[in-house]
């Protein structure tokens, strides 16, 4: 690729980063450095990566252990994932980990995959939280409890998570196809494990697994965001450094599958309303030089709308949607292609089309245009990922599992240099019948063998790798309401459209924007659903004479992620791009909004997708419960935009929408006279304000606008129960309505009360239902309060096994009753106040979230000062106020509760 002036600028940042390298504490050596990411190595084998970015006032810390389901032995499937859960049970020095996360406002979690397990936390940048989290991470590495009592309770939580996956047709088919594709390798086993192994694994084996793999020489610590490098490196040396290097040697995995010797098939028969078709092919490992060609091939075949499968299956209406992706694993892996079909579609016809499209690649070679389009999309996503510290952290963790963190950059370089001949060679070698695993068996008399898989030694590949200059850094920005208001320019265009602009230097010169159009009123919008939402989602499928593909290609070239989300009375556009592209992106967005072409064929595709999505939820516990909850007590007639439709109505209304109705809806309602636009990031504010005026300042809707009110309405308490046969997991939902607006004096206390009761990990419901009883993988509650009317709702939800229904009910009712009678303690409130304030600060530190906040404020004619007053009110809360708010507003006797699951089977 040609180097531009930007590359020279980035090189300057690289020199600045190198010049600012922190001094090395005793026992620490400097490792490789690539594109602003520096490695430091401790004597005990721990590798440390620093990816500083002062432009975001947040810090993210991640510990990646090079262990996953690939390392599990017979009878130990799911052990790596089960261990991930037990790590959060604490150590003797840190016994209440989730409480500390909550009190400190940390957004923390862990994840397990085939080749690695990682633990991470993001928080508003401050030395106290950074030091605490690093000290806990170091202690957890070798001193975690991993106790029998915790295994007994957490085992049932993991089993519930397993059951949740069993409810998902796609995940179920994906896992069984992988199992059929692999004969010996652990990649054929689900990371979450076999139910019998999860239920029966001994604590001794789990502790031995922990002692073997959770050691400094098998871990990589990553720190990104805003932090003092010298101080942090010294702290890491002082906390992790004393951990001795273990004497044991981790045995390498050496199982390699032979080349597949014929088609394999698997059929999953379960209750459902949509069909799925999937084809898997063995391909080289993620670190193999050919994997770049595999990734491009997956896009050439599986992208929407440019991919060959989309054109062959979706445009012909044989399928509702298609997909294509490859897993970047340490050892030889799989690439998947497939489609989702309506229940009345022909699976045989779709299968024939899918296989013909994939395996006729020798007769119909991939083209340079297809490869260039796929490469542009990959490089766009890479650049936007590299500009975001948290996304970079996830990508680095994945690369570590593949063999080395520098593979993240090396893979990009390989994609840059991959030729169309490389993609064609890989396609011809691996997309052959004998290398295929499919949902149905198809014999053949002429087997074609794919190349023998091989292991990859990544070390020599990355030994001298240098990469590109680091991504440009940004400015340090304080996300306080006062500073945000002082930096935000607000204006109105000639037609009344409101604009908020917050310009600041960001990492990679990124910029985020939000545009919201609002239209119609209660009377004029009557009978327009779902034409309104379909209209909004049709916009980018053809506009200004450009096809859907041409619009997507142009956004890719401009390094932009743009989403159009249509609603009954509004249209939301979210934009993520870079400074140099923002003007062109806004011009293209304006073209899409103002001059849509509405191709009739695209509407049929969209309707087919919508109907298929609705059908897929018809027998899912969560879908059934949510629809029932939304419909209970709804006072509006059918045709009103506030009316909640059942599954049959949603399908019928979608099918009834014509292209004429879509075009008419746009012509009648769309305009920018009641719109809001907010831009946050690296951009020229005066120029963008002037451009906004040119693009939107003369655009008005034909219909007068009056926001459709959503006033409070009373819903009597009720208990609803629905049978969803053949579903391993069940869903619980509860809701009550009450009168409150977000400027009510009781609002901050109500927020705090909900946060303590059910607001995520560490809440009272979490501690009882997940940690103590082990009934649910996910449980929590939320409160939604309108800024317009005195109308609010409190909701709670949980997933669980159907046979645990009685235990779920008991745990939920007892916890709510205990709070009602005894109240919250001062200690719980102190932790909640700190956690709430830090989480609110963290939200304001995310540019995409901040753009949404500023756009919402424009509609409300508010500034961030309102958020500042809420922060002050939270800080001043007393335990008496919070207890009074809970008792006044959150009345369990007024709840509507919904239970959906296979209770008949659970009772047996």
What is the level 1 CATH name of the largest domain? Alpha Beta
What is the CA-based Rg, rounded? Answer: 28 Å
Name the average pLDDT. 93
> What is the CATH topology assignment of the largest domain?
Cytochrome Bc1 Complex, Chain A, domain 1
Q: Please list the strands of the largest sheet in the order they lie side by side.
A: 1-2-3-7-4-6-5
Tally of distinct domains: 4
Range of strand content: 15-25%
The number of distinct helices, counting runs of at least 4 residues, comes to 34
Model description:
The protein has 908 residues and is of the alpha+beta class. It has four domains: 220 residues, Cytochrome Bc1 Complex, Chain A, domain 1; 199 residues, Metalloenzyme, LuxS/M16 peptidase-like (Cytochrome Bc1 Complex, Chain A, domain 1), CATH 3.30.830.10; 216 residues, 2-Layer Sandwich (Cytochrome Bc1 Complex, Chain A, domain 1); 190 residues, 2-Layer Sandwich (Cytochrome Bc1 Complex, Chain A, domain 1). It is built from 34 helices and 25 strands. Helix 10 crosses helix 15 and helix 27 crosses helix 30. It is globular and about 70 Å long. The N and C termini lie far apart (64 Å). The N terminus is likely disordered.
Brief summary of the model shown:
This protein has 908 residues and is of the alpha+beta class.
Features of this protein?
single chain, 908 residues, alpha+beta, Cytochrome Bc1 Complex, Chain A, domain 1, 4 domains, 7-stranded mixed beta sheet, 34 helices, 18% strand, globular, disordered N terminus
Layout of SSEs?
Layout: H1 5-19, E1 28-34, E2 37-42, E3 47-52, E4 58-65, H2 79-87, H3 97-103, E5 107-112, E6 117-124, H4 127-143, H5 148-166, H6 169-181, H7 195-200, H8 203-213, E7 219-225, H9 229-239, E8 264-265, E9 274-283, H10 291-302, H11 308-314, E10 321-326, E11 333-342, H12 347-359, H13 368-386, H14 389-402, H15 407-417, H16 420-430, E12 436-438, H17 459-462, H18 481-487, E13 488-492, E14 498-503, E15 510-518, H19 531-538, E16 542-543, E17 546-547, H20 548-557, E18 561-566, E19 570-578, H21 582-594, H22 600-617, H23 621-631, H24 647-656, H25 659-669, E20 676-681, H26 685-696, E21 718-723, E22 730-738, H27 747-758, H28 764-772, E23 779-785, E24 792-800, H29 805-822, H30 826-844, H31 847-860, H32 865-875, H33 879-889, E25 896-901, H34 903-907
Parallel strand pairs: 3-7, 8-12, 14-20, 21-25
Antiparallel strand pairs: 1-2, 2-3, 4-6, 4-7, 5-6, 9-11, 9-12, 10-11, 13-14, 15-19, 15-20, 16-17, 18-19, 22-24, 22-25, 23-24
Helix pairs in contact: 2-5, 3-30, 4-9, 10-13, 10-15, 10-16, 11-12, 19-25, 21-26, 22-24, 27-30, 27-33, 28-29
């Amino acid at each position: 690729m040609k180097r531009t002036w930007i590359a020279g600028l980035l090189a300057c940042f690289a020199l600045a980063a190198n010049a600012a390298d922190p001094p090395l504490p005793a026992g620490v050596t400097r490792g490789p450095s690539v594109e602003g990411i520096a490695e430091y190595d401790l004597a005990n084998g721990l590798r440390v990566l620093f990816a500083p970015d002062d432009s975001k006032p947040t810090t993210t810390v991640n510990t990646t252990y090079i262990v996953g389901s690939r390392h599990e032995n017979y009878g130990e499937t799911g052990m790596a994932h089960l261990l991930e859960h037990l790590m959060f049970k604490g150590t003797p020095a840190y016994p209440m980990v989730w409480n500390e996360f909550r009190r400190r406002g940390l957004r923390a979690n862990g994840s397990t995959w085939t080749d690695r397990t990682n633990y991470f936390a993001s928080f508003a940048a401050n030395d106290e939280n950074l030091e605490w989290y690093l000290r806990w991470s170091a202690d957890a590495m070798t001193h975690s409890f991993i106790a029998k009592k915790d295994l007994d309770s957490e085992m049932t939580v993991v089993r519930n998570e397993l059951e949740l996956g069993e409810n998902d047709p796609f995940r179920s088919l994906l896992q069984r196809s992988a199992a059929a594709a692999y004969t010996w390798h652990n990649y054929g086993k689900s990371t979450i494990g076999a139910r019998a192994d999860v239920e029966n694994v001994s604590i001794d084996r789990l502790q031995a697994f922990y002692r073997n793999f959770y050691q400094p020489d098998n871990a990589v610590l990553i720190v990104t965001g805003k932090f003092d490098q010298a101080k942090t490196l010294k702290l890491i040396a002082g906390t992790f450094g004393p951990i001795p290097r273990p004497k044991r040697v981790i045995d390498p995995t050496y199982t390699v599958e032979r080349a597949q010797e014929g088609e394999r098939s698997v059929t999953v028969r379960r209750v459902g309303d949509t069909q799925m078709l999937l084809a898997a092919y063995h391909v080289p490992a993620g670190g193999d030089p050919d994997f770049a060609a595999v990734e491009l091939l997956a896009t050439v075949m599986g992208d929407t709308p440019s991919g060959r499968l989309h054109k062959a299956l979706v445009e012909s209406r044989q399928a509702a949607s298609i997909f294509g992706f490859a897993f970047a694993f340490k050892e030889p892996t799989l690439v998947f292609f497939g489609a989702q079909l309506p229940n009345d579609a022909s699976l045989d016809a779709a299968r024939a089309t899918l296989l013909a499209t994939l395996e006729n690649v020798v007769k119909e070679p991939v083209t340079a245009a297809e490869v260039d389009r796929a490469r542009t999309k990959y490089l766009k996503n890479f650049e936007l990922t590299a500009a975001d510290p948290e996304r970079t952290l996830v990508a680095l963790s994945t690369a570590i599992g593949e063999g080395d963190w520098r593979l993240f950059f090396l893979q990009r370089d390989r994609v840059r240099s991959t030729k169309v001949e490389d993609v064609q060679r890989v396609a011809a070698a691996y997309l052959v019948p004998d290398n295929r695993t499919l949902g149905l068996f198809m014999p053949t008399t002429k087997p074609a063998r794919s190349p023998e898989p091989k292991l990859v030694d990544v070390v020599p590949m990355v030994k001298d790798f240098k990469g590109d200059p680091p991504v440009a850094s940004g400015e340090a920005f304080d996300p306080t309401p006062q500073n945000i208001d002082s930096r935000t320019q607000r204006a109105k265009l000639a037609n009344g459209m409101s604009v908020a602009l917050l310009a600041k230097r960001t990492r990679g010169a990124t910029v985020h924007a939000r545009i919201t159009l609002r239209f119609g009123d209660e009377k004029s919008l009557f009978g327009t659903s779902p034409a309104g939402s379909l209209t909004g989602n049709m916009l980018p499928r053809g506009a200004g004479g450009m096809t859907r593909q041409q619009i997507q290609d142009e956004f890719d070239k401009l390094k932009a992620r743009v989403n159009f989300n249509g609603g009954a009375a509004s249209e939301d556009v979210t934009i993520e791009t870079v400074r140099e592209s923002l003007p062109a992106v806004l011009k293209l967005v304006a073209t899409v909004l103002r001059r849509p072409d509405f191709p009739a064929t695209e509407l049929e595709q969209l309707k087919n997708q919508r109907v298929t999505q609705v059908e897929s939820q018809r027998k899912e516990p969560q879908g059934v419960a949510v629809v029932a909850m939304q419909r209970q007590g709804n006072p509006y007639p059918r045709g009103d935009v506030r009316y909640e439709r059942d599954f049959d109505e949603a399908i019928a209304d979608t099918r009834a929408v014509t292209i004429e109705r879509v075009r008419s809806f746009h012509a009648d309602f769309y305009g920018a006279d009641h719109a809001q636009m907010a831009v946050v990031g690296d951009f020229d504010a005066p120029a963008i304000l002037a451009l906004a005026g040119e693009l939107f300042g003369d655009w008005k809707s034909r219909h007068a606008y009056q926001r459709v009110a959503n006033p409070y309405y009373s819903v009597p308490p009720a208990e609803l129960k629905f049978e969803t046969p053949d579903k391993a997991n069940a869903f619980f939902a509860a809701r009550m309505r009450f009168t409150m607006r977000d400027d009510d004096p009781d609002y901050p206390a109500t927020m705090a009360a909900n946060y303590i009761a059910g607001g995520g990990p560490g809440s009272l419901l979490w501690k009882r239902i997940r940690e103590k009883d082990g009934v649910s993988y996910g449980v929590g509650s939320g409160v939604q309060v309108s800024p317009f009317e005195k109308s609010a709702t409190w909701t709670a939800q949980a997933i669980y096994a159907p046979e645990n229904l009685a235990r779920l009910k008991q745990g939920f009712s007892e916890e709510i009753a205990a709070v009602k009678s005894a109240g919250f303690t001062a200690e719980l409130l102190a932790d909640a106040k700190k956690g709430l304030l830090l989480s609110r600060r963290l939200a304001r530190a995310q540019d995409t979230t901040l753009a949404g906040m500023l756009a919402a404020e424009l509609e409300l004619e508010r500034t961030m000062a309102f958020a500042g007053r809420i922060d002050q009110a939270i800080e001043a809360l007393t335990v008496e106020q919070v207890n009074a708010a809970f008792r006044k507003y959150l009345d369990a006797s007024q709840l509507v509760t919904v239970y959906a699951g296979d209770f008949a089977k659970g009772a047996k």
